[in-house]
Design brief:
The longest helix is centred in the last third of the chain and has 21 residues, at about 105-125. The chain has about 140 residues and is α+β, with helices and mostly antiparallel strands. It is built from 3 helices and 5 strands, in the order E-E-E-H-E-E-H-H. It has a 5-stranded antiparallel sheet with strand order 4-3-2-1-5, with helices on one face. The chain has helices at about 60-65, 90-95, 105-125; strands at about 10-15, 20-30, 40-50, 70-75, 80-85. The mean pLDDT is about 90.
């Protein structure tokens, strides 16, 4: 079977709390691990998407509405739907690993780094489709 989930690939979560949210694959584990003996991926996604911004808004309001709330998660392959899109986020690869989920403080630190990377990407205007919620 070909490898569908590669780092940087965009997918949609199908099950759970973040169902319907877009995520980017950070690390894929096709064979699984001892704790999780099924194929899964470490993903980072957007829990709360940025709000719409218009020309009439001031700089302070634009800054507030451009905020992103990220999440990181270990997701089974059967709960992911791959898309044809990819996202080039070089900074994400070193931020999250399998040891990140063992301690809460590490998870919070990595979420802050991911938030900064995603907000920089959003304000630069790249990959606008990733920062809009799915409509269904």
């Amino acid at each position: 079977m070909p490898k569908i989930y590669k780092p940087g690939k965009v997918a949609i979560v199908l099950q759970g709390r973040q169902a319907g949210k877009k995520v980017v694959i950070i690390k894929q584990l096709d064979e699984g691990t001892k704790e999780r003996p099924y194929p899964h991926a470490i993903v980072a996604g957007i829990e709360r998407y940025p709000l719409k911004v218009t020309k009439r808004m001031g700089a302070k309001k634009i800054a507030k509405r451009s905020k992103v709330k990220p999440f990181i998660k270990v997701v089974n392959y059967s709960h992911l739907f791959p898309t044809r899109y990819a996202l080039e986020l070089e900074g994400l690869k070193g931020v999250v690993g399998s040891e990140t989920f063992k301690e809460v403080s590490q998870r919070e630190d990595s979420k802050k780094q991911i938030k900064k990377l995603l907000e920089d990407r959003y304000t630069s205007g790249k990959n606008k489709w990733f920062f809009q919620p799915l409509r269904f």
